[in-house]
Request: fold
Amino acid sequence: MKARSRRARTLGGIAGALACIAASVAFGASPAAADAIRTAEWPVGFLDLPAAQRLSTGSGVTVAVLDTGVVQGRADLTGQVTTGPDYAGGIEKSGQSGWGEHGTCMASIIAGHGRNGGADGMLGAAPGAHILSVRVIRDDDAPDFGQATTDGTPISDGIRYAVDHGAQVISMSLGGEEADAGDDSSSESDAIRYALEHNVVVVAAAGNGATQGNPVSYPGGERGVITVAAVDDNGVHANFSTTGWDVSVAAPGVNLPCDAFNADDAYMEGSGTSQATAYVSGVVALLKAENPVLTPAQIRTLLETTATDRPSGGRDDEVGFGVIDPVAALRAAKTMNGLPTVPKPGAGVASGHFGYGPTEKVTLGPSGLSSRARAEIGGAVLLLIALVVAILLLRRPKPPVYELEIIEFVQPQAPPMADPRLGSDE
Reply:
């Protein structure tokens, strides 16, 4: 059967398309026996999953699958799926076309435990993990595909729901562009920060846009997300896998089987960074079960530093730091100590540009002030006194300055002699 593209997206409340990153996913041409799935599942040997699962199965860890929904009751997922809210909405229901096709496929890659005692069927990366299904997009054959979702911000609301309901890992095999994609305060970036602050690891697809100019896909392009590229069974970068600065690691993503949504005797097969993302999410569940205190940043570093098939120079935009190595990552995780999710402020470090200047040790005197402080206060007081004196001197009244005047001294004249005729008697 010719493979057909399976891209699901939701419009309306989210500006732009949120495309489900799954290239060339096909239904089996005929019902497939359970062991046929295991035979076709080359990542089991490629990633040495049996060895990894001897160290950890992911037991006790909940992986939230934000996707098109996960159908309950599949044989390879018995007892492992909890159904959360449906933020995508629509007229289609679980078990019908357009509901849970892509999501069920991803869940089986993450946590499939097989059947017949585990020897047959789909073996996921973390068969002991639990799946929390949160429907945030529609399959592309949904009758109302392309119409507005019930919820205006399904991705961000789905992330917050997953965090608030016990998920330790959030797997998003989806991506696209929004009007505010990449903004520091978009609904998605805020929700992802919320997850990281609550010690929840977020994994997302790099995208299948290598032949369309390698556009950055969100939420994969958000800070703190483990963004996953796809490789084939030789560890070579898949020709459809988006190349970009945001790629962290790579995982199997070419010609892969997974559970069908509507039957236990059929399976789907295809390629995409969706499948690669699911494998990484499963491995993260193994790590969280092995060492629950590890932070999202530590887990990302573990995957990057233990990766195999590392490119020359240590990293490139095709496969990031290389292909995940579950066994190496688990061994490294075993003895690691956790770190604060939000770093605490520490002492500043002096540098040639900014930082603290020279310092000296001082002791406090009896007065409670250091000798240096007392000296500084005394100097300030003396300076103040000198300033006050100067002001007073300047404002004191000045002595008057007289001009010389010519003063004539006049000698007094003798009084006139009395006239004898005046007042005489005769």
Summary: The first strand starts at residue 18 and ends at 20.
